[in-house]
Every structure is written in structure tokens, then in C-alpha cells.
Design brief:
Low-confidence stretches: none
Helix content: over 70%
Order of helices and strands: HHHH
Radius of gyration: 16 Å
Shape: elongated
Number of helices: 4
């Protein structure tokens, strides 16, 4: 039971970090990087760090929800929380990557990130509560 919370926390920390960077915290992260001499890595961080980190974090959460779905419902496809997590993760992932693919999509991407993260966090918390037996 305890490991479910730990596994979900790892994925949530990654997705929250990436989402925060994309929603406006990136200057803070870049400023911190500049302090240690890494200010020139802004573009590389956006494309080569945040995108893959978001992808891995969403896949990690989806895998954990699938494991929970198999444990609680016999199959992940029968576990509604799994599907909520997949939809939320996909929306947040699309919101993070969309501005790097299509110019001028900053505002719609922000909406996708917020809606996706709320759904993803809700699904993760519900999955942990289900595994712990909390009703």
C-alpha cells in the first residue's frame, strides 16, 4: 500500500515541475541555472529536458494506474481512474508540447495543462485512496 503513494508521487513531482515551468515558472528555473553558469541552456531545457520529462512522467503515472487497475479491478481497462489518468496526462502532455510545435498556441496550451493536471492529480489521488481502501 505504501509503495503506491511513493510511485505516484514520483510521477506527479515530474509532471508538476514541467507544468509549472510551462505555466510561468521557467524564468525562475532559468535564473537558478544562470546562478550556476547554465543560463545559455534555456532553449535546450525547454525542448530536450521538459518534453521528455513530461513524457516519462505521464507514462510512469499511466503505468502505475494500470498496475492499480489490475490489482483492484482485474484489468486496467475496467478501472475508470486509469482512463481519467490517461486522458488528463494526454491533455497536459499536449499542452506542454503544443507551443513548441505550433506558434501562437500559448493560451490554449495553458488551458490544456491546467485541465490535464487537475484531472491527472485527481486520478492519482483517487488511485492511491482506492489502493489504501479509503472510501
Amino acid at each position: 500500500m505504501r509503495s503506491a503513494l511513493g510511485r505516484q508521487s514520483v510521477g506527479l513531482i515530474g509532471t508538476l515541475f514541467v507544468s509549472a515551468c510551462c505555466l510561468g515558472a521557467a524564468p525562475i528555473v532559468i535564473a537558478a541555472a544562470s546562478v550556476v553558469g547554465l543560463g545559455a541552456v534555456r532553449h535546450a531545457m525547454n525542448v530536450y529536458v521538459l518534453g521528455p520529462l513530461m513524457t516519462l512522467s505521464v507514462l510512469w503515472i499511466g503505468w502505475n494506474l494500470a498496475v492499480q487497475g489490475r490489482a483492484l479491478a482485474g484489468r486496467a481497462s475496467r478501472y475508470a481512474v486509469f482512463w481519467a489518468g490517461i486522458v488528463g496526462g494526454t491533455l497536459a502532455w499536449a499542452g506542454v508540447l503544443l507551443p513548441h510545435i505550433v506558434r501562437g498556441t500559448g493560451r490554449p496550451a495553458d488551458v490544456l495543462i491546467v485541465v490535464g493536471m487537475v484531472t491527472l492529480i485527481g486520478a492519482s489521488l483517487k488511485g492511491v485512496m482506492d489502493q489504501r481502501g479509503v472510501r
